[in-house]
Amino acid sequence: MRTISPALLALQRLYHWEHTQPGQIALVQPLGQGAVLELTWSQVADQVRRMAAHLQAQGWESGSKVAILSKNCAWWLMSDLAIWMAGHVSVPLYPTLGPDTLAHILRHSEARACFIGKLDEWEHMAPGVPTDLPCISYPLSPPGASRRCSAWDAICTHTAPLAGEPTRPADDLATLIYTSGTTGVPKGVMHSFGNFAWAIEQGLRRIPMGPSDRLLSYLPLAHVVERLLIEHGWLQTGFRVYFAESLDTFTTDLQRARPTVFFSVPRLWVKFQNGIHQKLSPARLKLLLRLPLVGTLVRRKILHGLGLAQCRMAAGGAAPMPLALLQWFRGIGLPINEGYGMTENLAISHLTVPGINQEGTVGPPYDGVEHRIDPESGEIQMRSQALMLGYYKAPELTRDAFTPDGWLRTGDQGFIDNHGWLHITGRVKDLFKTSKGKYVAPAPIEDKLVMHKSIEACVVSGSGSLGQPLGIVMLNAQAMQCLGDAAAKAALEASLVRHLHRVNATLEPHERLQCLVVARQPWTVDNDLITPTFKVKRNRIENVYGAQYADWAASGREVVWQNG
Length: 564
Fold this sequence. Notes:
GMP Synthetase, Chain A, domain 3, Rossmann fold, 3 domains, 36% helix, Luciferase, domain 3, alpha/beta, 564 residues
């Protein structure tokens, strides 16, 4: 194991920029109605020091847990740094959690206080925050939260900044990252300062970044990828971070930031593609891209419209990226590098190498990462210096997460090709058996199914009582709007039937879908059918729809409209 240089640890990086680039803009925060707040490194460090002094004055024992409940904003990052500078442990919370899950995490983590920031559904979430828990509000907090909290600005105004350069050892616990929970109750993943320092160092070897780069922070900072890429990438390299204001302003936010590096989940990449196809049909776009001069102009216009004209590195992850989607974006001049990782390894496991077409794989492991395939189950296993310390208060689950010789069990299946590139074929636990006794791996089929222009998300499911699997799909907003028109609905159904035939033609006989079921209910975080990072909760889908599987399969229809 390589020793982590203290200079790479998070707090030391803050002090570095405070001293070397005090007047450089570090964070750009929209305030609404076109107003923007720009914070320099000196201003960031000053507010962090004042808030750290306030937290220390509470007299809690070192290593106390302090939660952060907010959408992404400048104060989120400053809160995290203040918690660390004060000697405590941060507990980031997704800003879309239901009150029950919120209450569970606050109770389980033994949080001593909570920062409550920018939120869309505070009144719904509020019952999950104990009334006797000390809270601190941000300038952008909703009014209801501000009334029950101490105010960030007031604390900073009346508190002297913490002096000196307090540091934390590499092996100190830095944070509890509660998993987004696709299969059950969230678990608190423990990571140290050394884990983060090692992980971002390896990440920057694969994706070099520097002070001249610009990144837009919009995926939840409670998620491991955003946390590592934005927060720790920012601290290590000094690049400028822009924040998104809202979903409604996302296009404007992208145009304002003009990111040079951009990461997103597959669902948003699909939305980008669908948006372009609404303006230019796939056939027309394909024709134009073939024309030498016109194709160049079209590609430039598309990327400019997305706000990605200056993006030199695009990446996707958190869920499988369909091969056809990767090929399409490469065709418009924006190759996407696909990454693979999990909360338990700080998302540093695999990433395709920029400049090399490794589509259909997640590439080789990062430097310092080892990988192997379990010969019996086909499970992908890995180890590195970024592996979690364990699950908080769950020694049995921690033991189960590792092999006896210390390799992390990922729960994913795959194989390593002759180049050393990893191919992921599905989840070990996602495999299901039909009544014919054949196993079906849903993930590769879902990658093909989701490529229809009207499908936003899908699940391939089945049971031992069905002869064939079936596909359950959620339409995008544009497709849902046309369902009130009989002719438009009939045209959509015909298109879905043709898509079903195309997908089935690529599958083995036992994998072919009996039918497509169009869900009437949107899959959202609020109804617990997707995670905050837009991954579909397969077990919840099966719980909600499973009782209807047999009727759908017996209907004899290729497209079944749920409840009608």
